[in-house]
Amino acid sequence: MSLKIRFALLFSIVVAIILLLSSISIYLLYSDHRKNEYANQLKSEAMLTFDEFVDNHLNEKDTATLISKEIGDNSLQQKCVKIFNAKRESIYSSSLAPSFNFTFEPKVLDKIKKQKEYYFLIGNREFCGVYITDAGDYVIASALDIDGLNKLRKLRFILFAVFIVSVTITTSLSYFFVSSALRPLSKLNAQIKQTSELNLSQKVEEGNGEDEIAQIAKNVNEMLERLNKAFQLQKNFVHHASHELRTPLTTMYASTEAALNKKLSESDYKKVLTSLKEDQNSLIELTNSLLLLYQFDKLKFAPNFHSFRIDELIYDAIGYCKKVFPMVVIDFEFLNIPEENDLIIKVNDVLLKSAFNNLIKNAFLYSDDKKLNISLVASENEMQINFDNKGNQLSQTEIENIKVPFSRGENIGLVKGIGLGLSIVEKIIALHNGHFIYKPMPNSVNRFSVKLR
């Protein structure tokens, strides 16, 4: 069932329930009003007849003269009045319905005596009994409210007809209005159906920008923009990754084929093997980096954090890099005197040391003097680790792109690399809710800073 049919049906059901309850209430109220009004008429007729009966009896007049007065009352059709004495013997009976002959059971008279006034029905005929306390007599007036019952039936028919027509009109109008209200949503749905990875840059119409549907359209456009960026990054990543993987493999294949087709000396073979080793190291580094980037989304949902001293992690990274790059000169200093607790932080030590290794390696490879300085500022709320080296500083465009995978600055010179180091650092620091910042300093110093909390 579509949303507009569901809304129209729900609205129609609510209106139908309201109309039904209103119709039933009107009918019951009118029926109760008719019954009370007719009961009062019967009571008045009973008392009037009794008073005239008593008056004629005291004046020794013929009680038959009461019938002529009864004929003039047209509101009580087929009227009948009976009077019983205290012994419950019928002492007067008059009726405009000659065929009417009714004998009251004792329990009816008991109820009249107990309640003083008792209204009851037998078939369509209505009765009202009155007990005269002083005389001990019973007066029962009866008649048919033909006009009142006809009016009640007409009212029932009118209410039923109004209910059917109202529900029909309400259903039609509600479907029309709901369709009109949801037309922008249907249009939005059609546009979303046509959206694919080939046209993510195409935006959906946002309408007036004020209602909920416009807000949904706006959120969809923002989502499409994020997806478009993600797809573009993925395409660039795949393109660069395939290119970077092809380069060392092609070089290794060419070097191997050249070595097999020529007779080389021992020194030449060593040169070929050394070149193959460098290419293999580049391939291993690229493969590890690609695997780390691929698995990063899984790692960030289940980080394995433990408490470590930040300075010990830095020392471990320095020791590792000195083994890989024996020529590197690293100075590590504290810019303040922190408390011991200020140096303890919950991190994933393997990932954070990998980030530090990449920063040290980057600072060493792109420094002019193969030296770098690491400084640490630690406080109760935040710690900052600075990695400084002298060299060509980055332009604003390079600063914006340096964290993008496979992006390399203009200062690379002859340094080999794949452009994944800083992008990995950015992701690792973000996983720790930190910040990774580049800032050019005086005297041609490049500063990469990591801020952790």
How would you characterize this protein structure?
The chain has 453 residues and is of the alpha+beta class. The protein folds into three domains: 3-154, YNR034W-A-like (Profilin-like, 3-Layer(aba) Sandwich), CATH 3.40.1840; 214-299, Helix Hairpins (Orthogonal Bundle), CATH 1.10.287; 303-452, Heat Shock Protein 90. The chain contains ten helices and twelve strands. The protein has helices spanning 3-58, 66-71, 106-115, 146-193, 212-261, 266-301, 310-324, 349-365, 396-401, 421-431, and strands spanning 77-84, 90-95, 117-122, 125-132, 137-144, 306-309, 329-334, 344-347, 371-378, 383-390, 435-441, 445-452. The strands form three sheets. It has a five-stranded antiparallel sheet with strand order 2-1-5-4-3, sandwiched between helices. Strands 7-9-10-12-11 form a five-stranded mixed sheet. It is rod-shaped and about 160 Å long. It starts with a helix and ends with a strand.
